[in-house]
Every structure is written in C-alpha cells, then in structure tokens.
C-alpha cells in the first residue's frame, strides 16, 4: 500500500481538487483507493454527497474521515490524503514519515508560493519526499512558468506540467463528477492532471 498526501500550509490552493482527481485516476487505472478527507471543511466528502445524487456518475473509490482511516484502508493499493491547511511542523513531520510522496499544490502567486516552499522545507527537514504542483494557472499567463523556473532555480522539486485554470473545475465540483466527464475546453485541466499523475506513479513505483 502506498500513501500520497496533498498538503500545504495555505488553503485554497487546489489540494482537494487535486486529491479527488488523483484518487479517480488511480481507480480508473484499476487500483483500490481510499481518499482520506482530513480537511475541516469536508470538501471531498461534500463532493461525494453531490455525486450520490448524480445518476451519470459513480465514485469509484472510498472517501473516509481521518478518524475512520485505520479501519478503512485494509486492502487498499493507495491511500490519498486531502489534508487541512495551517499545519504545524510536527504535523508535516508525520506526513513526511508516513507518506511515500507529499504533493504541495500552489497557485502562481507570492503568498501561495511562500507557503509551498515553507511546506517543502519542513518535509525535507524530516527526510520526506515532496513535489510542488502549480495549479489553477491562468491560460496564456507567464506567471506559472516564471514561478516554476524560480522554484527550480532555488532547488525545489516541481512538476513540469502546471494545471491550467478552467471553468470545468467548478462545473465538475458542482455536478458531483470529475473533469474527466467534462467535454471540450472544460476538460482541458484533466489532460494536465493525467500527465502529472503519470509522473507521480513513476516516482513512487
């Protein structure tokens, strides 16, 4: 069993969206997956409740609370953790020690990037493995590329592919499905996620 967590000291950077889509990608590729909703807002759980009323979509993985995690992960190939924001260094130490990979989403702005680097530094200090994911990147905007270049130049590990911003994210969340069920331009961020998720699977193989 492998554990991947989506973590940042800052909220609103795409942790839940990325965690849900990674769990979905793993499930449709044949893995038994448990998504642990450790966010106080219970965003993933609320999404699953909307999915239950969507006759065209079935969630192909389990979603459980952190308290129920120990009883729910038996037989899972992957555990995906959607964490809450504002972690202490002790919390981040636990993620570093317990997870095969910590994914740190960030938007292409200074405050999000600072939170990402602080999170990455804490993971490294606890000998964990991490990678920064630039998410919600505006189309035709140089900020994401410039941020990635700056992070890499500073010695941080960053996914080559950024997740572009798209209205499909909001539509999928409201409808209780994923970007994979979107069509046309609404589906474009899913293509980015597929590239990133393939890289994740290679990193922890």
UniProtKB/TrEMBL annotation:
| Gene3D superfamilies the record matches | P-loop containing nucleotide triphosphate hydrolases
CDD domains named among the record's database cross-references: ParAB_family
**CobQ/CobB/MinD/ParA nucleotide binding domain span:** 5-178
Per the record, a Pfam family? Answer: CbiA
Q: What is this protein called?
A: Chromosome partitioning protein ParA
The organism of origin for this protein: Leptolyngbya foveolarum
